[in-house]
Amino acid sequence: MLKQRVLTAIVLLALFLSALFWLPESAWQGLLLLMVAQGATEWTRMAQLSPQQGRLFWWLSVLGTLGLFLLDSQLQGETQVFVHLALYVLPAIFWLMVVPTWMMIGWKVRHPLLMMFTGWLVLLPTALAMQDLRAESPKALLFVMALVWIADSAAYFTGRKFGRNKLAPSISPGKTWEGVGGAMLGVTVYVVCISLATPAFGSYPPLFPGLILASWWWVGLAVMGDLFESLIKRQAGVKDSGALLPGHGGLLDRIDALTSTLPLAAMAILMQKLG
Length: 275
Known about the structure:
Blueprint: H1 2-22, H2 25-46, H3 51-74, H4 77-105, H5 112-136, H6 138-162, E1 166-168, E2 172-176, H7 177-197, H8 199-203, H9 207-236, H10 251-274
Antiparallel strand pairs: 1-2
Helix pairs in contact: 2-3, 2-5, 3-5, 4-9, 4-10, 5-6, 5-10, 6-7, 6-9, 6-10, 7-9, 9-10
């Protein structure tokens, strides 16, 4: 299983890096549209929507993504920044306030419309964030995504080796506090290496501690996204969101931590532009 996971991850990384740095904007948007379409298919199963409700959710997800891209093409300058910031407000509230409460009380949502709306908050802001961060710089998007990947990998291996204390046994029994500690150590090493390799950080030493603290906060967000998808899967009685990726499950199993981190990263960068 581990060998299959590694091989799949290598192939996915090669394809993603090729798309990130070489695809034109229209093709990149097409790729994001495919991501949302696949994610909507998997969410339909996890949300236990009926076939009719699932089709409605899928089409509205695809059309909503196209609408976001069309709106983006009509906006420029500060107007674009303000509109995008407004679009990120609801996802920010969702991940910072609603999801922690949802998980703490173990809320079991059965209403189809509420589950559809939740799915849109998970999928559409992630696609918009990948568009915004790539437009800012492909390296900016890669930096944030790599931070999440490193945190996830470090947590996995540390948890397997040293894990004793369960993080959220009722949601995801395999996750441990030792794994979280490993994730924080992993992103710390990552940030140190990036800082040493980036002259800009050397010119502003006071930024370094703040960047470390921000990376730890990002680990918390990533864990939240991971746990939230685990909660939805557990309530639906499924192990994986799908079977698209050998050794990994579905697409949502691979991007769960990104859905909670990328929108807030894009929001932070846009707010910095206004500052």
